[in-house]
Records
---
Amino acid sequence: MHIPSGETTELELLTFADALEAANTPSAEYDIGAWLYAPNFYSEYRYILGTRGVRPLICVGINPSTAKPDALDNTLKSVQRIALGNGYDSFLMFNVYAQRATRPDDMEKQCNLQLHEQNMQAFRYLLSIGREPAVWAAWGAIIEKRKYLPACVADMLDISREYGARWLCAGPLSKKGHPHHPLYLRKDEQLKPFDTEYYLKQMQIGAKK
């Protein structure tokens, strides 16, 4: 379990640029040739965790939990299986909000704009890695836990348009149109297109109500 020790505004945040530089520096803890981990130490927040390859699948959840290199949780084990099963050689786990919390109910009530800004820098970096980036929307209905999360997704969709990203989902959508969480998907689940423009409109309608 990871329960946040306090608000992320109380932390001295590592910028994504500095976190990436550290992630590319040899570590005694894990093989940086196999893993991308930023920050490269266990902390109250995480920008990226994944494996390195030439054709990565970017998976987007809500917020990081306890996983780290060579110690994936069940959700990330499922992400890795589905990525490989759909022809990708690696996976990169990203999250709508970077605060680490095992239970989404423990996430902070207000968005830390500085943390969000650095998280979006991390997202831009992931989209820049290769041609035609593939992004798997996998946040589930957990997005309803905090009012600021849909706005964070909207920022991600704006950024992804700049890079011509292709959005995907796996499994059935919820009644409200939320993409399925990875944990309880079949091992051979196939990815399919996810209509982000329609989804964004639905979120905006819901917010007005």
Note: The chain is about 30% helix and 15% strand.
---
Amino acid sequence: MKLVWYLLVMAGVTYFIRALPFVLCREKVKSTFLQYFFAYIPYAVLAAMTLPHMLFEGESPLSACAGLLTAVILSVCRQSLIVVAAGASVAAFLAAMLL
């Protein structure tokens, strides 16, 4: 029974954290700084989630560097998040096949 309560509390806290910005910010964000900040959040999250695994747990550090370099270039060129992730994966795969 404790597990059910733990899950309910965890679900409530998660819902509260996700719903709070919608309740507090009903208007569009007008600050250009915040708009740029929010625009780069997906790229930062992708980098934080994949970079340690990519560099330290892969077979070849060179293929990891090829994927990282491709991801950085595609990000600087303002490609979508899916294009960046797919491009980095393909580049790392091809580099691993060639090396």
Note: The two ends are 54 Å apart (CA to CA).
---
Amino acid sequence: MNNEDIIIRLEHVSKSFGDKKVLDDINLYVKKGEFITFLGPSGCGKTTLLRLIAGFLAADSGVITMDGKDLNGVPPHQRELNTVFQRYALFPHLDVYDNIAFGLKLKKVPEDEIDRKVSKVLKLVSMNGYEDRDVNSLSGGQQQRIAIARAIVNQPKVLLLDEPLAALDLKMRKDMQIELKEMHKQLGITFIYVTHDQEEALTLSDTIVVFNEGRIQQIGTPTDIYNEPHNEFVADFIGESNILNGTMLEDRKVSFIGHDFDCVDEGFGENVPVDVVIRPEDIYIMNNTEAAQFTGKVKSCIFKGVHYEMFVDTDEGYEIMIQDYNAFEPGSVVGMLIKPQDIQVMKKSCLMNSFEGTMTSDESVSMLGGEYDCPKTEGIFKGDRVRIDVAFDRIDLLDNDQDAPVTGNVAFILYKGNHYHLTVITDSGEHVLVDTNDVWDKNDLVGVKILPEDVHITKIGS
């Protein structure tokens, strides 16, 4: 990438609030004229990053540059960018014209030039003729247009938009998405957009940056993000997915849900555990079971407006989601087929839990902020630093009123066809991955129980 094509660059940017690290070593560049979207769940750090770029917050470490110039210490009003907020922040005592002209008047721009610029942006946001209207008399969509007009009238190099459509109803939001895309095309400036709405990000963006827990999970075009997710979080967060445990048997052949399938993926090795992603619209469902790769029974069928959403229990004991234009009644036996190009294989981020700890006796170890019993291991003694390996399915989660050495909160839940794969963040801030058939809700307080026979100890440095 030519440096002349880059308008904003972030290098090793981190930010904490108290003990909580909100952004962790962010590296990213934004191209001139690009529509880039920061996408992720609430609390993932995307708005904080936007506020760092705007100058409303200062990074704890790292560098943010614009056109090659370090923005450290540059106040917001001296940066060549403007921000549109979710809460429109219009001046209620000023009419539409004066709201838009406010920044120009502060800069002492000549009146005739202000008139020309205000008229131009009002036309751009389809609000010409509203100059004398009281902003409080406008609808939510109209107020948002005025907020955008006020931001772009100063001709910033970059427009920052912090969930600007979140307060609008569904139809108005869809209409404004089309208008924003058209505005971006006409203005030719860089848009940096923050949203938690996956469909909005896919509709608007040239590039999507997916965040979770203060880290970038994937950067790519909407097509790349949807069709080629890098990990299970992205696959689950962007659209609907069937995410299943599988085994890569060899190049272009993968096994999952009890069957072997041809696929297009290569380079994983042989007999390697993998995650398999199948979008529900990519599973063909039919009454003819003889032509199918596998069969099952329809569990439910719900009309979703443009398609039917069905859950099918396969003969091998897996539940999968299918979206199809045709309805298959609950209880009916169906056949299913998946084409090779519709199977997405991903490397597993890890195969088991690995923690670091300290032996507190020959048969107990301190880890995750608590103490657990463990088997006596030859050559390992009290005080030794050790690595503790525990399989996902060998950890039990207890109700918060039960006794356990460590407690934490359920942070992420992923259904994998015949079990749940959970991420629990302990009180000490460490992540524990758990496979379970029990149903938990996000943010549930749980105890983390590990039996001694399921703890595998290795001395660090041995």
Note: Residues 135 and 310 are 46 Å apart (CA to CA).
